[in-house]
Amino acid sequence: MPKQECIAMLLAGGQGSRLGSLTRNIAKPAVSFCGKYRIIDFSLSNCANSNINTVGVLTQYKPFLLNSYIGMGSAWNLDNPFGGVHILPPFVGEHELSWYKGTGNAIFQNLKFINFYDPDYVLIISGDHIYKMNYLSMLNYHKEKGSDITISTIEVPWAEVSRFGIVTINEDGKITKFTEKIPNPDSNLASMGIYVFNWAILKQALLDDEQDPRSEKDFGKNIIPKQIELGKKLYAYKFQGYWRDVGTIESYYKANMEFLDGEEAFSLFDPTQRVFSNEDILPPQYIGPTAIIQNSLISNGCVVLGEVSHSILAPGAYVGEGATVKNSILLPQAKVNSHAKINKTIVGESAKVLSDCLIGLEAEAVVRQAGITVIEDHYVLGKGSVIRAGSNLYSAL
């Protein structure tokens, strides 16, 4: 096996509990995004576009859909004989099945996988963020600085700093402090959860962390601050592009709409840095003779017979005759039947809104205050139901 300069370890085991009913049945990285994609597509596409062709994907929470979606990585051109994509779930060790206890422990449990490739550098990324990034630019910065660990960072609004790990740097970009999710940090430079480690540094850091009974086995809370204490050289790589953590219903909805409006998000139509997906092969979209569509993204396999405005329809979605879909997101195979009217609603995968339902049709000020209505995957909303804006509909099972 040829030696790899850099391999990627993609953390994709998160439950994503803040996404509520959207992740009751699937892992967060597998959630549909912006029509034809799933959230994990963005990190995998970044690897492909950065010529990083060995990727370990660490899964844990309800992984079936995610595992089957990734497959051998061929959709992202990562199915090569000298690396490729490897699904790395927790496994039975010498004594017992050991679930991943934190981001650090997840990598620790796969040290043998990394040792097999014996890389010079290990890129650690997450499968639940929306962004385009050339990881090789970050790796080159890491080498230029002679860094032991490099953290990709982005400036965030001061009102949101408590949601992130925050780094403090000197004039050369060297990290002098790392604080994890505290109310009043002295910087608004947030960690993106993307790290480049020298492999020898990472290995020793993980071995040491496993021996610490007080550690939560987490990069942000434990491993990174400890390496600063030990005097290792950590540098911040300042990322300038679009990046979103879609960890809540509100941020997920907002990010989808940013791509629809084209105000802040990057272009999905740029052929030089494509976002790949393992979308099902479906027939072309069908737009009926009385359909009205305005400012919307309509994926393959969709059938639109009614009115769709400022909305995103994932593959296989259906809008019946006389139905109205506004400011909404229909996930794969979702159906809004005839004469139903929905506004500011996320309709889950294979969920059905039966005829004559009314969702989120209060006065605009009420809808804006109440938030987003979410319908869980496979849920069937009975004919003629009237649902207030901001409701969360899910089955009892």
General description of the model:
This protein is of the alpha/beta class and 397 residues long. The protein has nine helices and 31 strands. The strands form six sheets. Strands 1, 4, 5, 6, 8, 9, 10, 11 and 12 form a nine-stranded mixed beta sheet that branches. It has a six-stranded parallel beta sheet with strand order 14-17-20-23-26-29, with no helix packed on it. The mean pLDDT is 90.
Instruction: Quote the average pLDDT.
Output: 90
Q: Which parts are unreliable, with pLDDT below 50 for 5 consecutive residues or more?
A: none
Portion of residues in beta strands equals: 25-35%
Using only C-alpha atoms, the radius of gyration works out to 22 Å
Indicate the percent of residues in helices. 10-25%
Structural class: alpha/beta
Topology:
Blueprint (H helix, E strand, L loop, with lengths): L5 E6 L20 E2 L3 E2 L1 H10 L4 E5 L5 H7 L13 E4 L15 H6 L2 H7 L3 E6 L2 E3 L3 H11 L3 E7 L9 E5 L5 E6 L8 E10 H12 L8 H11 L4 E5 L4 E3 L3 H13 L24 E2 L4 E3 L2 E2 L4 E2 L2 E3 L2 E2 L4 E2 L4 E3 L2 E2 L4 E2 L4 E3 L1 E3 L4 E2 L4 E2 L4 H7 L2 E3 L4 E2 L4 E2 L4 E2 L4
Parallel strand pairs: 1-4, 1-6, 4-5, 8-12, 14-17, 15-18, 16-19, 17-20, 18-21, 19-22, 20-23, 21-24, 22-25, 23-26, 24-27, 25-28, 26-29, 27-30, 28-31
Antiparallel strand pairs: 2-3, 6-11, 7-13, 8-11, 9-10, 9-11
A few lines on this structure:
With 397 residues, the chain is α/β, with parallel strands linked by helices.
Key features of this structure:
six-stranded parallel beta sheet, 397 residues, 21% helix, alpha/beta, single chain, 9 helices, nine-stranded mixed beta sheet, 31 strands
